[in-house]
Design goal:
single chain; 3 helices; about 65% helix; elongated
Amino acid sequence: MQTVSFWSQWYFQIPNFILAVVMYTMLGRALLGLFVDQDSRNFIWRGFCAITDPALALIRPITPRAVAPVVLWLFGFVWMFWLRVILLLVFFSLGLVGASQP
């Protein structure tokens, strides 16, 4: 079995990495949100918000307005997970990723 380097499949790995960062940061924001106010000036909280707010802006229109912010963040985590799965399936079905790559 042949190993595949990161750079030989950069076109898949970089978007997958960005989605993973947003996904896990959204989970971290949901957990941190249990202890920190939403308008906190804490620099870690502001960092989490800066990373996740662009993705949440896309998710917010398809989520009911009645949900609490923490639920929106958890929905965002799930959406990012499924985007990563779809990304893998698309690249795999096109033959652009997999162990058989040179």
